[in-house]
Amino acid sequence: MKRNIVIAAVTAAALIGGGTATALATTGDDDPGTTRQSDVRDRDDDARGAADDRADDDADDRDDSRDHDRDRDRDDRDDDRDDDARASSAKVTAAEAVAAALKEAPGTAVSAELDEEDGDDDGDDRERAVWEVDVLAGDGTWHSVWIDPGTGKVLGSETDDEDDTDEVRAALKGTSVDAAEAAKAAAGRGTVTSVELDEDGYRGDGVAAWEVETTSPGKGEQDWRVDLKSGKVTADRSHHSDSDDADDSGSDDD
């Protein structure tokens, strides 16, 4: 009887011990609730880190955009100053440059631009201002003629190949205002730095005109259109707002 009692006690103890071991083994694993909370914290930290990174990237983009705008504005101001400097140093007007070029290469002046040329034939590497006039001769030959803006002297010329001869001739047919007259018409708006035939018209509308660019202190570079028949000067709508167009439109009194 005592043996049975002892055996029963040992068995109970074994069962109790096994159950305890099982319980300990079970409680030895990570708590699922604790694990889920840790995962949530990690995900929140990752999300905050990603948001911070995006915010930093956005801030860098804004800084880059501001730097780009400042650089562009500074370049525009430098270009305006260069145009003003070239224009103020030029004693020969666009109309006079056209006249000098036509003596060298008779024909029809299609454009004249006060630009910079790199150095000269004497080894001088400094840039200098020069009028470049493009002339369409009667036989269809194109000539580029360079005029000294200080003296009106022809510095040189060369023959060019152009593929828009027919378009230019069609645009100029029956017109009465040439490049020199267009430059004179726009001279009241500032110092003319270029005049060029636009045979396609404003935004391709087919209404050809002279495009004239001027520069003046305080206003910088401005663009104008001169009617090929009337010589009327209007603001170039592709460069001016509608209000500027209304204010500056009308024929020139010169």
DSSP E strands, number: 8
Q: Which consecutive residue ranges, at least 5 long each, have pLDDT under 50?
A: 1-29, 75-80, 240-254
- The run of helices and strands is HHHEEEEHHEEEEH
What is the C-alpha radius of gyration, as a whole number of Å?
A: 41 Å
Order of strands side by side in the largest beta sheet?
4-3-2-1-5-6-7-8
Structural class: alpha+beta
**Count of separate DSSP helical elements:** 6
Distance between the termini: 140 Å
What value does the average pLDDT take?
A: 75
Strand percentage: 15-25%
Largest sheet: 8 strands, antiparallel
User: What is the overall shape?
Assistant: elongated
Helix content: 40-55%
Question: Any overview of this molecule?
Answer:
- This protein is α+β, with helices and mostly antiparallel strands and 254 residues long.
- 46% of the residues lie in helices and 24% in strands.
- It contains six helices and eight strands, in the order αααββββααββββα.
- The chain has an eight-stranded antiparallel sheet.
- α3 packs antiparallel against α5.
- The longest helix has 58 residues.
- The radius of gyration is 41 Å and the shape is elongated.
- The N terminus and C terminus are likely disordered.
